[in-house]
Specification:
Length: 112
Amino acid sequence: MKQAIVARADLGMGEGKLAAQVAHASLQAYEEADGKTQREWKGGGQKKVVLQANSESELFELSEKARLEGLPNSIVRDAGHTELEPGTATTMAVGPATDEEIDAVTGELSLY
């Protein structure tokens, strides 16, 4: 099992901002998973991969694809306290789910 977090490269987020947004996305998608999936993923080392998107629309397309596959997912919108305007969609996460299920949604993306 793994989780994929997709971050927008087009926003030019600083390293700390990027790390925080990735963490938010990971936790939010994890909370969408059922208890059995949560336990299996946690017991297996909480494998994650961070990938890049280049637009807000790409995040929403991936989220919709994950939703249609029945996979836990989330989109993070920034609160706007530091680098970004309030409501900016920064990251999305899909999973935890099987590697094959995650790859079906995010397999075409490059590593961040």
